Amino acid sequence: MGNIREMLQQHPFFEDFPERLIESVLPHAVLATYNPGQILIEKGKPARHFYLIESGVLMLEEHVDNYGTVILDKMYADDMVGWSWSCSPYRWHFTVRALHETRVIILDADLLKDVMAADPELGFYIMRRVTSMMEKRLQSTRSKLMSFYASFPAPNEDRPEWQKLF
Fold first, then answer.
1. Domains, the chain, ranges and CATH?
2. Residues 94/6/122/91 CA torsion (nearest 10 deg)
3. Least CB-packed of 32, 60, 65, 150 within 10 Å?
């Protein structure tokens, strides 16, 4: 197991980051391990961190009324979790739970936002990666939504107009 500097340098999130930018992030990074079933992120709570997965599996989940908990996505080693810290109202929109023992690098987003404001180049690099992750998650959601709708009969003229939209 390497030190946290080496882990940051090797994590895909920081690929191609200039060394001085990694040095700026380093004081705001902590290594942690979560056990199966342990919650990292709880829906509705303030979003003050984001997580770089070193090993293990995390589940993004949502409670659906009259149904229960639904797993919306799984994240694995080399993924990043948590972008709500970058968008107002800075609260988590989902719950994230460890499926297996999972080791993550936790970055303090409140402190990191200050560093990003003082160093626009760092802010650019970080937000470029965050938006890339957002795009990846949105495409994954779109794909799952298309699979979901494919399980229903195709729209036809007998369906009410409002159902033709779905």
1. 4-137 (2.60.120.10)
2. 10
3. 65
